[in-house]
Amino acid sequence: MSGAGAPTTGNIDGRGLDVVIIAGTWHDKITNGLIAGAERVLNEARATHRLVRVPGSFELAVAAQAAFAGGADAVVALGVIIRGGTPHFEYVSAATTDGLTRVSLDTGKPVGFGVLTLDDEQQGLDRAGLEGSKEDKGAEAADAALRTALVIKELRG
Question: pTM for the full model?
């Protein structure tokens, strides 16, 4: 598991930050776990937030761009891409990652990356923050988005 060496989380004051959680609709059980983890972190930080759903991970980048155009300070992008028997996995994974990176750099605002790229469903269940999961990638993505938004706010004075 990649959770070894994870940064410390918690104790974030997100008051005054507007965060949009954008989640795909594939693999509901895993995605709903990711959303729950992200919402928990944002609630604990007292950040203003809302959830929007898009059809799949490929659509996360354009929705993130729209969220920033609407005034969001940060986005938490959540999705699930499971490898299949065709090259589709590589194309969607690369396009999603590149798209979210581009949106973040073009806007100068953080995107918490909670897109799971998996070989099988069990890997997602292990990372979704569900009962019995080893990791909570939704919470980690929200934490990263909040912390980065606060750093950017400080750097810009």
Answer: 0.94
